[in-house]
Amino acid sequence: MTPTWKPDVLGDDYQQHTIALGADPDGEGEVEATLVRRTPPAEPSRVVLYVHGFADYFFQTGLADFFTDRGAAFYALDLRKCGRARRPGQIAHYVSDLALYDDELDQSIELITSAHPELPITVVAHSTGGLIVPLWLNRRRRNGRPAPVDSAVLNSPWLDQQGSAMLRGPITWALIPLARVIPKRVLPAPVGGVYGNSIHVSGTGEWDFDTALKPLIGFPVTVGWLNAVRRGHRTVHQGIDTGVPTLVLHSDKTHFTKSYTEAADRADLVLDVKQIARWAPSLGPRTTVEVVPGTRHDVFLSQLEARQAAYGVVTSWLDAAHRSEDNA
């Protein structure tokens, strides 16, 4: 297939291509995904594909600059019903099964390999994307068609439900029958916004993103979507294998709070970092976990010193991982 690139909202260095996915298995009309690319270096040495998390989309131009400066052709994927790809009437980020994302991930990889034949590919994923991507890699490997990916970097991947044992246990079990009858029912949840305000320019942050695509208080969570996530969690907990060297990055602390203090800028406000550390080894035998002190939930949106440290960890790990693969 030949992609049709058109200008993207991020400016002259960015273009986007719409990936048609056909009728939505979840009954919300035609669905599509959006692949974004940054103008690549003249002779790229590898490719990076970025996958966002829940209530998120690709806007992290600093991340694109980092990889481009290292010689990579950078792409990012807005998944179905997310960010640029969401269409009127569709529930933001809703899927009944995380495996539905395999379609746009597969098509993105096909487009990338057509444009850059024989170049190695690193997949970078954040939060819920950090759950979606390893499950996809594991399914590809188990089905005998491993993705042409040689490394994965997971930025604060969502590997378990944060909160009490009651929430992780009995309440989760109750989702199974509920998801069959009221999959799109919105679950009650406290109104947040501390994290969003801590990173957006309208609050105390430095990042200017579209709050229609990434609301400061997030999007509502539905029964069917959370059930899909919890099924993904259970699969990870049973043990999977991405099949490639995998780096897991996370902060050194969690700080759940309903009000902003300076501590909010130096901790994960969204996920329990102890859970990330606990379950990361379940992603496969070639998983490396790196704690980056003082980082936020999105480590690449941390304050300058902390995000520079995160970039340094990624650089060192990728260099070592690729040297090891080259010598294998």
TrEMBL record:
Keyword Hydrolase: yes
The Serine aminopeptidase S33 domain, residue ranges: 43-300
Gene Ontology terms, MF aspect: hydrolase activity
InterPro entries: AB_hydrolase_fold, Hydrolase_4, MAG_DAG_Lipase
Stored Gene3D superfamilies: alpha/beta hydrolase
Pfam (any one): Hydrolase_4
Keyword annotations from UniProtKB, A to Z: Hydrolase
Annotated SUPFAM superfamilies: alpha/beta-Hydrolases
PANTHER family the record matches: PHOSPHOLIPASE-RELATED
Protein name as catalogued: Alpha/beta hydrolase
Origin organism lineage: Bacteria, Bacillati, Actinomycetota, Actinomycetes, Propionibacteriales
